[in-house]
Design brief:
145 residues; alpha/beta; Oxidized Rhodanese, domain 1; two-stranded antiparallel sheet; globular
């Protein structure tokens, strides 16, 4: 196959609309497999929360659970052995900014053997918009209406 033909096939596979369609299908499939919970169902004392946003996003604040891990989505599977195996018997709640990365993270954990894993529907954005508190290195904050 000549070089131009190879490039053409590559760009056809990487068509952004096609990729977005595949991602949407993947998210819809994950929604069928992974339970999602609302902000009022989160047990900050007993559940393990995993914030799968990127490091620069963590600085804006996290949900103030008793047990929380900040592990970017791209590193989650690699953190299972040294960080998460000890909490695998507890309710695990994954979250991100709006819900998509949290959903995929929960699906990945389910595939790795975590049985009691859910996604926070709407992510930390829904948490903040519902008037709940977040914390960062400066203290505790909530959205003022």
């Amino acid at each position: 196959m000549e070089h131009n033909e190879q490039l053409k096939k590559f760009y056809e596979r990487c068509d952004i609309d096609l990729l977005k369609g595949r991602l949407k299908e993947s998210l819809e499939k994950a929604k069928l497999e992974i339970p999602e919970i609302g902000v009022d169902e989160v047990d900050l004392e007993n559940a393990v929360l995993i914030d799968v946003r990127e490091a620069d996003e963590f600085a804006s604040g996290v949900i103030p659970a008793k047990t929380i891990f900040t592990i970017p989505r791209g590193k989650l599977e690699f953190a299972v052995d040294d960080k998460l195996v000890s909490v695998s018997d507890k309710m695990v709640i994954c979250y991100c900014l709006k819900g998509a990365r949290g959903l995929l993270a929960a699906k990945a954990l389910r595939e790795l053997g975590f049985e009691n894993v859910v996604n926070l529907k709407g992510g930390i954005e829904s948490w903040v918009n519902s008037g709940k508190t977040i914390k960062n290195y400066l203290g505790y904050f909530k959205l003022q209406s």
